[in-house]
Specification:
Layout: H1 2-30, E1 31-33, H2 55-76, H3 84-110, E2 112-113, E3 116-119, H4 121-139, H5 147-171, H6 180-197, H7 214-236, H8 247-270, H9 278-290, H10 302-329, H11 339-359, H12 363-366, H13 370-373, H14 375-378, H15 384-413
Parallel strand pairs: 1-3
Antiparallel strand pairs: 2-3
Helix pairs in contact: 1-3, 2-3, 2-4, 2-7, 3-4, 3-5, 4-5, 4-6, 5-6, 5-15, 6-11, 6-15, 7-8, 7-9, 8-9, 8-10, 9-10, 9-11, 10-11, 11-15
Length: about 450
């Protein structure tokens, strides 16, 4: 449909231009460099949920977090053999705008002083965390929305993410340094609700076609290697303090290796394939990392991290086998990349684990670390029981904001002028990536349970 393609390209070009001009103006008015004499924008004058950190540690971790968001997540969405390059292009588009918008929206919440937003390494790490959540959300609708809708989802998603993060970290004092709730849980269920609102009944009548080939596994291999290298830095980016031992890094690695082994334990039992696919290992890897988002800096202990990682690694195979068909047939939620099994459920498990470990937080167990992990408890402003209640309430609040925000965003994306015609045969990302006419099949964006890859 050349007319529709031309209109979509013009819409994308115009929206990108308007959004970039808007961000340039806002940056010119509000954004300034953080003072070099300050250890970071998180000073006593600033309302900041991210704790003071040593800049010598922060800049390398900013680099690692940024590489993880751009390359790790970007490559993980390229599971469609014919549409992989287009998926990566959309991921880069989302990252490019999300970082700019997050610097502004989070800046007004955390880094705002005397009418200006002061940016530094911390604010960029915070923006990358927000970008990761949005990339997770796009995984639920990948291939079923066009780039214009993706930009609008990013615009609204960043705003809602910041609202949820501000309520949890600043107002409630919740400890969630690695983002089990703020990144994984919010991102997953926000995207799932958008997917539910965008559900098209006629799509279920199309013949599904598996898009196979070597390219998906090649992308999965590279993306998984990036996960192994950079995700521990992602989890610990907001927890490193001077010369303190990086518990978050250690716990994440232990959880990662155990979750990977869990996939080799369960997958041969559930599926008849003689060879495990790389995307299945990738699923377990992400689940093991998501579960350590909140508990990573807590006293999990090495053997505890192995146990939790192993349990998290069992969730994706079981989820793809039993839950994904129910989501699709009963709830009419099409989860393109399986974010529910890989980010949503492990994120909830991580939140429950964090709540349990919070109840065990004492000065005897944590020593000087208590002030770093639970500053309000260490200062005597809050008891451990009160902190547990806050950690517990954070889960329903996150789910509520994700579902309501996802419903609102989905309704916006369903506006007639933004949607593709019902008889469009190609994946929506063909606006950015030309494919042959015979290669266009919406069924290619859907994969059978057990072989689904992740954002």
């Amino acid at each position: 449909m050349p007319e529709h393609t031309t209109a979509s390209r013009l819409q994308l070009s115009g929206l990108c231009f308007l959004l970039q001009i808007l961000t340039i103006i806002l940056f010119a008015v509000f954004v300034r460099y953080s003072p070099e004499s300050s250890p970071g924008p998180c000073s006593q004058q600033l309302n900041c949920s991210w704790r003071n950190q040593d800049l010598g540690f922060q800049h390398p971790r900013f680099r690692d977090v940024h590489l993880q968001a751009l390359l790790g997540f970007g490559l993980l969405v390229a599971f469609l053999g014919r549409y992989g390059p287009g998926s990566v292009a959309i991921s880069i588009l989302v990252v490019a705008f999300a970082i700019q918008w997050a610097v502004l929206i989070q800046g007004f919440s955390y880094f705002f002083l005397n009418g200006k937003i002061y940016v530094g390494a911390q604010s960029m790490v915070s923006a990358d965390f927000c970008t990761a959540a949005i990339l997770i959300s796009t995984g639920a609708i990948l291939g079923r929305v066009n780039p214009v809708q993706m930009l609008l989802l990013t615009l609204l998603g960043v705003t809602l993410f910041t609202l949820n993060e501000y309520i949890l970290l600043s107002l409630m004092g919740v400890s969630d340094s690695g983002g089990s709730l703020t990144v994984h849980t919010f991102g997953a269920y926000f995207g799932l609700m958008v997917s539910r609102i965008l559900h098209q009944p006629h799509m279920d009548k199309r013949k599904e076609q598996q898009d196979t080939g070597h390219q998906p596994d090649v992308f999965a291999v590279v993306g998984t290697i990036y996960l192994w290298i950079f995700w521990p830095s992602f989890t610990s980016a907001t927890t490193v303090h001077d010369n303190a031992e990086p518990w978050a890094v250690l716990n994440t690695y232990f959880s990662l290796v155990a979750s990977t082994l869990a996939s080799f334990v369960l997958l041969p039992v559930l599926y008849e394939e003689s060879t495990l696919r790389m995307v299945q290992i990738q699923d377990a890897t992400l689940a093991g990392m998501a579960v350590m988002g909140m508990a990573g800096e807590m006293l999990v202990t090495p053997f505890g991290a192995l146990i939790v990682g192993f349990l998290a690694g069992l969730i994706p195979p079981l989820g793809f086998r039993f839950l994904t068909p129910v989501l699709c047939s009963r709830l009419k939620i099409q989860d393109t990349c399986g974010v529910h099994n890989v980010h949503g459920l492990p994120g909830i498990l991580g939140a429950l684990l964090g709540m349990l470990l919070t109840a065990l937080a004492t000065a005897d167990a944590y020593g000087g670390r208590l002030e770093l992990v639970f500053p309000l408890v260490a200062q005597g402003s809050r008891t451990a029981t009160d902190q547990v209640l806050c950690q517990l309430c954070a889960l329903p609040i996150t789910l509520l904001l994700a579902t309501l925000g996802g419903s609102l965003t989905g309704a916006v994306l369903k506006i007639k002028g933004l949607r593709s015609p019902p008889d469009t045969r190609c994946l929506e990302n063909t606006v950015l990536c030309e494919v042959a006419e015979e290669g266009c099949d919406r069924g290619a964006s859907r994969k059978e349970p057990g072989t689904s890859t992740l954002v």
